[in-house]
Design brief:
2 copies of one chain form a homodimer. By secondary structure, chain A is mainly alpha-helical. Chain A is built from 9 helices and 3 strands, in the order αβααββαααααα. The radius of gyration of chain A is 20 Å and the shape is globular. Chains A and B meet through helix 3, helix 4 and helix 7 of A and helix 3, helix 4 and helix 7 of B. Chain A binds a DNA duplex (30 and 30 nucleotides) through helix 3.
Chain lengths: ~240, ~240
DNA sequence: TTATTGCCGATTGTCGACAATCGACGCGCA
DNA sequence: TGCGCGTCGATTGTCGACAATCGGCAATAA
């Protein structure tokens, strides 16, 4: 009897939230950009109350910050923030890999399989964007395989901020062909149920890649300290 | 010239948030309790908009949940939720202990010292409440010693939910005199800079204690499945 | 010239009112 | 009696308006 899917009931606030998150993660709204309630309300054709709710959610997700009586802005991250994010993410992925190795369901294993396959094929296709997407997807698959709702939430919060970081800095990505070599040991440890190895490898991988990102950001920070010690911010 | 401290400027929303959080963590508002905007607005003598904002913060902190068009309620946790919380907390404390052992500042070490001293003295005083407080404080000191802002936030979110759990279930706490023996190895590993041992010990301690809590909750759940399969919830 | 002060535009904080939605109760019908 | 359905109260979703606050600018005085 059930033929029709339930229609997607989305509140205005939810729509606005999705729109804003999308804009931030893709870089359309770049780091540090100001988010004025009235302007957003006009653009999205809704009221300030709706926008406000969406902005609160954005703050909860770590994508925006609020300064009382002053305004909201897209989260702007420093190299130290990147260090925090990387250490947390490494911890999460270590935990997830361990749990996944210990108790992944067959369905989760299939999903992990598929994600790894996608990673391998995207690596050979030599399309950097596709490789990056597959990379992220594989990591998410590990988290999902842990069957741990709160872990998914916390991980999401951290990884989204890392996305801002990557979108705002000129993303440096390693050669797609290396991706398989980097992830294959983790994948193998999980599917063979080697919890300790899975945790250690996953943590080490995230920390290694993170170290490159942090180094890149520190260099960028050192370079920009001189040019812009205090400059009036440009209007949109 | 600076003699006066800045006066504490607290928005109505912030006051309301503090009040509600306090009520939830102390159990005044017990798990599953409904939070109606109008009722809270009346009680706290403010408007619904203010209450709404505070409730959104509560949700972000994991202390409340929202069901669209139906209402808000204090987070109600199952034994499985407890498992999630414990695994996350163990991961956080492991990371924190490792970082604290590696890079704690002298000030942080002093704070850790003080917290451990307080734990020891409260253990001899035989006051369960004081011991529990000192226990929590010591763990928070470890997190603080990691000098990792986001870790503090994530930890706070998890530990607050555990507080709900402890407040709602009849809190079972181990003998205060055992507290020193349980925490002393962790403390020692941190101050001696043994990062690996600190991480392992901290994680193991949280998981051990957490296992007791989870077992207690599972037993309680099994016992209550029969008496209340479906009962109309009591009105306040 | 320079520090202080008052003012002004911009933005958020707070509020009350109306609309949309949900769950439950009770009526009507087979 | 049991099921389906409309209705109703309760609660949140959304909105526009007004108040509070902030940062910067300009006028002023030493």
């Amino acid at each position: 009897m059930i033929l029709l899917e339930p229609i997607a009931r989305k509140s205005a606030e939810s729509l606005a939230l999705d729109r804003l998150r999308e804009a931030i993660l893709t870089g359309t709204l770049s780091a540090g950009a100001r988010l004025t309630e009235t302007a957003l309300a006009d653009q999205l054709a809704t009221s300030r109350a709706t926008i406000r709710t969406a902005l609160h959610h954005l703050v909860a997700e770590g994508l925006a910050v609020q300064v009382p009586y002053t305004g909201w802005m897209v989260t702007s991250l420093t190299a130290n923030d990147a260090w925090e994010l990387v250490t947390l993410r490494a911890s999460f992925e270590g935990l997830a890999a361990s749990l996944a190795a210990e108790r992944a369901t067959p369905a989760a294993r299939d999903a992990l399989d598929a994600a790894f396959g996608e990673l391998a094929s995207s690596a050979t296709s030599r399309k950097p964007a596709a490789a990056t997407t597959a990379d992220f997807a594989f990591h998410r698959a590990i988290i999902a395989a842990a069957a741990h709702e709160r872990l998914v939430e916390h991980y999401r919060r951290v990884s989204q901020q890392i996305s801002i970081l990557i979108a705002s800095s000129n993303a440096l990505m390693s050669d797609p062909v290396l991706l398989v070599d980097q992830h294959e040991p983790i994948y193998r440890a999980i599917v063979t149920g080697n919890t300790d190895a899975a945790a250690t490898l996953a943590r080490a991988h995230v920390e290694d890649e993170g170290a490159k990102l942090i180094a890149h950001l520190r260099a960028a920070e050192a370079a920009t300290i001189k040019p812009a010690p205090k400059r009036k911010e440009a209007k949109s």
